[in-house]
Amino acid sequence: MKHNLEVCFSPALYDLYHRPEAVVVVIDVLRATSAICTAFMNGAKHIIPVGDLEEARAWKAKGHLVAAERDGIVLDFADFGNSPFNFTPERVQQHDIVYSTTNGTKAIHKAASAYAVAIGSYLNLSALSFWLQEQHRDVIILCAAWKDKFSLEDALFAGALSKKLLDSGLFTTICDSVHASLDLWKSAQPNVYRYILKAAQKQRLAKNGLDDVIEFCHTPDQTSIVPVLKGDRLVGETVGKISYI
Ligand SMILES: O=C(O)[C@H](CS(=O)(=O)O)OP(=O)(O)O
């Protein structure tokens, strides 16, 4: 039996998609889920996603390492912000990191009551696709988007992941958002990086001099780790066999 695949383009729509037995993949290509994948790639032990700034501040007061930003600006009490380049091995290896961002951590909390929640980005695209195939469950791809509005970079990545899952033969869909994301992915070829330069988030990041991460965040298959939510924290699950479909 094939499993059902759906794409939800905004956390504001998530209640319409939620099914407790499905696996949800949260994606926030620019920049939260790319940063999370980078942190695990560089040896982080756990990431504790918190939606609320006061909660992040309280963790900091208890001596924890905190990465937190709003609207691309690092918060005054945080150790560092949301750029994947901040999550260096020197900073994160063997550490638990409390993490709060504008859109990404909010989407993770929104999905928390699903059967399982995984974190996706180009960095772990093939590993994630393989991990999802192994779950034998319906999948909902949740775009963190931008303040509940559609975002091009997340919708495009939803297309990349949908293509891999449908090509595996294990999934089927009657979801128009999947078809739209697949069409987007097709029209972005052959140069995804050039295509994404039109995204509003590219302009927002550029305004604050933070757009140095765009190419890195669109480079596939840099890690075989899939971050998965266990209780209040993300743990990295290493996928043994990666299928480069
Ligand atoms: O830091 C980011 O890239 C964004 C901030 S915003 O979209 O510029 O407000 O947060 P994220 O949660 O990664 O979307």
TrEMBL record:
Cofactor(s) the record lists: Mg(2+)
InterPro entries: ComB-like (IPR005238), ComB-like_sf (IPR036702)
Enzyme Commission number: 3.1.3.71
Lineage: superkingdom: Bacteria
EC class name: hydrolase
Keywords tagged on the record: Hydrolase, Magnesium
Catalytic reaction(s) noted: (2R)-O-phospho-3-sulfolactate + H2O = (2R)-3-sulfolactate + phosphate
Pfam families from the UniProt entry: 2-ph_phosp
Gene Ontology MF annotations: 2-phosphosulfolactate phosphatase activity; magnesium ion binding; sulfopyruvate decarboxylase activity
Matching PANTHER family: 2-PHOSPHOSULFOLACTATE PHOSPHATASE-RELATED
Similarity section: Belongs to the ComB family.
Name of the protein this chain belongs to: Probable 2-phosphosulfolactate phosphatase
